[in-house]
Amino acid sequence: MSLRSFTLHDLIHRNAGLHGPNTALVFGDQRVTHAQYAERTARLAAGLADAGVGRGDRLAILAPNCLEYVDLFGAVAHLGAIVVPINWRLSAEEVAYVIEDVAPRVLIVADEFKALLPQQGLDGMQRYTLGTAPGAAQAPWQPVRALYLDRTVPPADLNDDEGLVIIHTAAVGGRPRGALLSHRGLIAASLQTQLAWQLTTADVNLGVLPLFHVAAIGFLLATQQAGGATLLMTRFDPPSLVKHIDEDGGSLIGTFPPMLGALLDAAAAQGSALARLRVVSGIDVPETIARLRTTCPQATFWSAYGQTETSGSVSLAPFDERPGSAGRPTALNTVAVVDELDRPLPTGATGEIVVRGPMVFQGYWRCEADNAFTLRNGWHHTGDMGRIDAEGYLWYSGRSPAKELIKPGGENVYPAEVERAILEHPALAQVVVIGVPDVQWGEAVKAICVLKAGHTLSAEELIEFVGGRIARYKKPKHVVFVSALPLGSADSIDRAAVKAAHGGA
After folding, report:
1. Domains of the chain (ranges, CATH numbers)
2. Helix (H, G, I), strand (E, B), or coil: what is residue 346?
């Protein structure tokens, strides 16, 4: 390995030496120690090497959380390859685009998600299944267990700034962009949260967030940094979570609306005080955070700001330290606010949030023009607006006009992508998509539409139409039909006026 690098492979094998007998992963009735995890990743790496996988090759996975998913991260780190976690909430068309974009050498798919795969374009890819009964896999598919060999291969001699993961973000200009995250960035992110939350070998991460999400990867790696355990779950099940907290020592969880509220409801129904829960981090409304404080006074809700492109959180603080803020910059990042000419703004002024440091991604996969714009002048330009107060706390205030973002349940939805899908309907003339407050999900998608003359359409019909073209979490929850949209300068739609008129639910 490289003299001055520290990769995920190094972390895994360090843990095998320091915390070998301790539990690293739990999935159902399976328990894997840190030593066993190092062995599993090495065996999988040997099988992948036999399959021709080498440095820089992409391996795509479309699956729920499971042991093989986590093994894959370690195996690609061993070989210098790159894992591409695919969001199983995407539409079949979107999944096809991701696969075409990264051209993976290997495709690993759970049986329940094979229907999302394209019918064409998979030739030349080695395909492996998760969940297939013994002897039931049909060519060209093989069971993933066939990749685990009883031998090892030498690890690749890597630099830690090389790519480890590609995560496709929400579409801005018509297509998702694959953010390439390095070993260094992900390890730096996990180290900072591990230190902030004072994680130890006793901590158990409740791994309910899907592993295609950077937050889920971050929680997993932060717990690994500490030598603790991650309990992998395939779905969000509040009663089971309560049991895992009470009986398995679950101490750490990431949440997005309405997860925390549902967990607290389940705890009340089961008579649990969630006494072993210590850290909750994510997004939620002050009322739900106050419920957490009352139910679990020993637990701290942490506010944060970050993106996929920053490998995790670049600002962090307990919510009660500065309610409403996104915390203060973490130790290994520089966070600033600039104007439209990239000039630094004074304390308290609102502008675009920019970041630099080891956590910043390597760029978007095959998007040179986007990279030149986003990573200009020595900063990662987030497209988010905010301000920094006199004590250094970051206050997020929304997306820049060019990169508006809606976050229903913590997912990223760009209005432009939904608008394009809506305008594919032959009855639609114009549309503006905005985010509106939502009690259950925090924010919901709302479409304000103008029909073509002589056409009729119901809100339900349009919602179903859109849900068949993009991921269903991106479809509008609310649809309003109007006779015309307000115009601003140059006869363009005045989006601010639309928001002012229709920004309620």
Report:
1. 33-183 (3.40.50.12780), 325-401 (2.30.38.10), 404-502 (3.30.300.30)
2. coil
CB 82 within 8 A of CB 57: yes
CB-based contacts of 393, cutoff 8 Å, min separation 6: 315, 317, 322, 325, 326, 327, 328
Q: What is the b/e burial string over 395-433, where b = at least 16 CB atoms within 10 angstroms of the residue's CB?
A: bbeebbeebbbbbbbbbbbbbbbbbbbbeebeebebbbb
**What gap in Å lies between CA 428 and CA 476, rounded to an integer?**
15
Amino acid at 497: A
Pairing between strand 58-62 and 106-110? parallel
Q: Angle at CA 32, nearest 5°, toward 30 and 34?
A: 170
Inter-CA distances, 208 with 157, 443, 464, Å? 33, 21, 28
The residue with tokens 């900063």 is 379
DSSP line for 27-67: ETTEEEEHHHHHHHHHHHHHHHHHTT--TT-EEEEE--S-H
pLDDT at 133: 62
Type and span of the H or E element at 244: helix 238-248
Tell me the three state secondary structure of residue 124: coil
Give me the residue label for tokens 């360090």.
14
Q: How far apart are CA 379 and CA 365, in angstroms?
A: 18
> Are β-strands 126-130 and 106-110 bridged in parallel, bridged antiparallel, or unpaired?
parallel
**d(C-alpha 452, C-alpha 449), whole Å:** 10
Residue carrying structure tokens 């709302």: 446
- Please give the structure tokens belonging to residue 129: 């299944």
All residues at 6 or more sequence positions from 210 whose CB lies less than 8 Å from its CB, including other chains? 64, 65, 87, 88, 216
**Alpha carbons 187 and 79: distance in angstroms, whole number:** 17
Residues of the chain with pLDDT under 70: 1, 132-137, 171-174, 401-403, 489-491, 505
Q: Is 161 helix (H, G, I), strand (E, B) or coil?
A: coil
Taking the CB of residue 109, how many other CB atoms lie within 10 A of it?
23
Q: How far apart are CA 318 and CA 107, in angstroms?
A: 40
Q: Which of 247, 236, 91, 117 shows the shortest CA–CA distance to 171?
A: 91
Backbone φ, ψ for residue 369 (5° rounding):
-65, -45
Pairing of strands 363-364, 141-143: unpaired
Q: What is the largest CA-CA distance in the chain?
A: 72
Please enumerate in sequence order all residues whose Cβ is within 8 A of that of 100, keeping only pairs 6 or more positions apart, or say none.
121
The three-state DSSP-derived secondary structure of 247-312 is: HHCEEEEEECCCHHHHHHHHHHHHCCCCCCCCEEEECCCHHHHHHHHHHCCCCEEEEEEEEHHHCE
For 376-391, the pLDDT digits (tens) are: 999 999 999 999 999 9
The predicted pLDDT at position 132 comes to 65
Q: 8 vs 42, 253, 453, CA distance in Å? A: 12, 22, 58
